[in-house]
Amino acid sequence: PESQRREFAEKLESLLHRAYHLQEEFGSTFPADSMLLDLERTLMLPLTEGSLRLRADDEDSLTSEDSFFSATELFESLQVGDVPVPLSRPAAAYEEALQLVKEGKVPCRTLRTDLLGCYSDHDFLAKLHCVRQAFEGLLEDKSNQLFFGKVGRQMVMGLMTKAEKSPKGFLETYEEMLSYALRPETWATTRLELEGRGVVCMSFFDIVLDFILMDAFEDLENPPSSVLAVLRNRWLSDSFKETALATACWSVLKAKRRLLMVPDGFISHFYSVSEHVSPVLAFGFLGPKPQLAEVCAFFKHQIVQYLRDMFDLDNVRYTSVPALADDILQLSRRRSEILLGFLGAPVASSSIMNGALPCENGPLGELQ
């Protein structure tokens, strides 16, 4: 039956993914030809002329990627009885990106290989390239721009509400930042500012997910010793600790403002937003209130797991950029529903939002 053949084909594709990643992980410890032979014996595949030719060719190959592509060709011509099993390249977009990585054409600011559960730096960079392209396609649709923008706003509002803080100041500074970013005359300056911070690609992943969110989580994992000393002092009240932590956050942001190349640019507006959000996150992650700590831990877990799913060949399709974009959008909707539901915030839709991300050519409008 057609359904059984399709299921069998999907299992073979999954096996190819896992075999490739095993070779990525263990390198040259497995000879390429023996890997193919083991696969053929395990699956009891016929040794066709094509497969024998591929094995002979692989005798001259020592790289895991070559072995993987040869195995892919073998399965593409697979027949079960008299019925051909149509197998597309299981990760065609990923394979093409991997070649660009080998040629040194995929730059990045920070390698997130371990955090996102990738098998190697090359694996991370290849997936990063695909994710950038997927977001570029997604954000050409204004409804998707509205969706991602609204989700971000509602997540922060939900966190502040859980922390019993008014989101009014955050909303005002957020709208000011958005208004600044929407003005075409600011785009070139914003690009220069972000490039000065090491952001090598004006993409949604690089700016929002990596530069803003991942860096924030890293900073919270390594707080200054002076801050920890205050938080661990049992003689101080919780309210005093919260005030001291907020003061420390504001002092750091004030010092950073003095070093800005553009005093009233995008980064300055981002710092204005951070003045309202950073103290809440810091007290939540580091402070003595277990309920707030649980909320912040859940928030971080959902964000990190969202990214790990995005970089997992078993969870999203790397067969093509449009397929990956569609899976990322569905993944984004599912994760946002879980997180916003936990925070007690309204679930975002892709049709309503007060203000939109910039469209063509702007640094935020180029979010890929």
Structure described in brief:
Keywords: Membrane, Mitochondrion, Mitochondrion outer membrane, Transmembrane, Transmembrane helix. The chain is an all-alpha fold and 368 residues long. Helices cover 67% and strands 1% of the residues.
Describe this protein's structure:
By secondary structure, the protein is an all-alpha fold. It folds into two domains: 2-90, no CATH class; 121-343, no CATH class. It has 15 helices and two strands. The chain has a two-stranded antiparallel ribbon. A hairpin with a 2-residue loop joins strand 1 (79-80) and strand 2 (83-84). Helix 3 (49-58) packs antiparallel against helix 4 (64-76). The longest helix has 25 residues, at 2-26. The chain is globular, with a radius of gyration of 24 Å. One of its GO terms (cellular component) is plasma membrane. One of its GO terms (biological process) is mitochondrial fusion. Its main location: mitochondrion. Belongs to the mitoguardin family.
Distance between the termini: 40 Å
Structural class: mainly alpha
Kindly estimate the percentage of residues that lie in beta strands according to DSSP. under 5%
Helix content: 55-70%
Give the number of DSSP strands.
2
Oligomer state equals: single chain
Q: Unreliable runs, pLDDT <50, ≥5 residues? A: 30-81, 83-88, 350-368
Principal-axis shape equals: globular
- Helix count? 15
Largest sheet report: 2 strands, antiparallel
Radius of gyration: 24 Å
Order of helices and strands: HHHHEEHHHHHHHHHHH
Quickly count the domains: 2
Which strands sit side by side, in order, in the main sheet?
A: 1-2
- Mean pLDDT, to the nearest integer, reads 79
